[in-house]
Amino acid sequence: MASGGTRPDTLIRASPSPAPPRPGIGIGEGTALYVGAVLGGGLLALPALAAHVAGPASLIAWAVIVLLCVPVAGAFTALGTRYPDGGGIATFVTKAFSRRAATPVGWSFYFTVPVANCCASIIGGEYVAGALGGGRVTAMGSAAVILAMAYAGNWFGLRMSGRMQLAMVGLLMLVLLTAVFTALPQTHSANLEPFAPHGWLAVGSAVTLLFYSFAGWEAVTHLSGEFSDPRRQLPRITVLSVVVVAVVYLGLAFACIGVLGPAMNDSAVPLTMLMERGIGGAAQSVTVAVAILLSFGTVNAFAASGARLGAALGRDGSLPSWFAKGSAGGEVPRRSLAVLAVIAALVMLVLSVVPVGVDSLMKAASVLFVTVYVAGLAAAVRLLRRMSAAWCGAVIGLIALVGSLFFFRQFLLLPVLLVVLAEAFRLFQRRRAVERTTS
After folding, report:
1. Could you confirm whether domain 24-430 is CATH 3.40.50.880?
2. Environment class of residue 269 by beta-carbon count within 10 Å: exposed (0-12), middle (13-18) or buried (19+)?
3. Which of 55, 84, 324, 439 has the fewest CB atoms within 10 Å distance of its CB?
4. Torsion on CA atoms 240, 242, 245, 248, rounded to nearest 10
């Protein structure tokens, strides 16, 4: 025994036992949420919409989007591991610049979520209507059901919605890749000519449409605080997600153009046409299932991230403090989620009366998402270590996204409007604070 010391068995008992890992989202659930957010319902309609705008040259636009995924996803992953918080990009902008700058950024994402979710659900509803008939009534009714299921799943917590997403994304990947590889042997080189029938500037216009499918890489930053070990998990999830997204985007876009050609330009259901070429009579029912899965995956992931962002904005004073309940990790931000659900219901009500084209909805959502990305990447340039891989990716992505804003034209009024409203809210909050201190 050591003189005057403590017995070894006492030392063993005194040494702290390792803390058990905090329960949270795993790599499988996280990858499913990530892929579901990026591979949105827009994938069902975008191959036809982009080809209508730019012809076969829309493949270049798809390639540009996929290439941008790498640096942007890398930069957001680096920020998410360094600053895991439900505020996501709004938190990054606050740390890099100020809370005043973060408020319009947070608002741009938060209030775009219901619009983007309505758009994704309507696209899924169009496929259901194509199979069952009933036209717009069936499409809007089906979209409402998709929205309700996703918001209800999130009401019971992120782990529940994550498990649902994991099962659905696995089935979805199987069906989509089957559609692509069974149809590819019917590719005709004539469908690739003329390659740029509307000129090369049309590729830029196609990119603005495809930014709707690009959105989603920021969504998981709002969920980073929910992972059990974000510093280890997020990089793996990002790599897996980028690979899956690249294969599905490029494979489906090439298959639709090479196999269907101009025949899909006026179709609201290009995936059904592709499935019919590959698997025949069962195509319609299979495509309806895929449409529902894709749309649900998008709405589910964005509802989860948007709800946590709203709670974080309430916590930080960028929204009324009423929103803040549920902002702590592991809690369910039901108040914020309820607001998103109500806004989505109002948007659906308006759209059922005033028909608005899906492409216009996509561009409206896209310009706000791009604005959020520009702010997030600017924060990354300021916060990340200079000349690191993530920092270089942020610089590349920032330059590319700022350049893309030129193609949005009149839609640029939307982020300007949100900045004005956010600033008005900030001034209102400041005036109330002054009144409290003087009363």
Report:
1. no
2. buried
3. 439
4. -80
| 98-103 CB contacts, 8 Å cutoff, 24+ apart | 99/316, 99/317, 99/318, 100/426, 101/375, 102/316, 102/318, 103/313, 103/318, 103/422, 103/423, 103/425, 103/426
What's the pLDDT score for residue 20?
Answer: 46
Domain ranges of the chain: 24-430
**Other C-beta atoms within 10 Å of 89: how many?**
27
Cα-flanking dihedrals φ and ψ of residue 25, to 5°? -75, 140
Could you tell me the pTM of the whole model?
A: 0.71
How confident is the chain (439 residues) per 10-residue block, as mean pLDDT? 42 42 64 71 73 88 86 85 78 87 86 86 83 82 89 70 63 75 84 86 83 67 67 82 84 86 72 74 73 78 83 86 77 87 90 75 82 90 90 90 83 88 84 77
Tokens at 60, concatenated: 């270049």
> What angle (nearest 5°) sits at the alpha carbon of residue 393, between those of residues 88 and 419?
45
Task: Evaluate whether 248 touches 43 at the Cβ level (below 8 Å).
Answer: yes
Q: How far is CA 95 from CA 86, 99, 107, 386, in A?
A: 14, 8, 17, 16
Is residue 72 within 8 Å of residue 373, measured between CB atoms? Answer: yes
Q: Residue 12 has what pLDDT?
A: 40
SS3 39: coil
Residues 6 or more apart in contact with residue 5 via CB below 8 angstroms: none
Q: What is the CB-side half-sphere exposure of residue 14 using CA atoms within 13 A?
A: 6
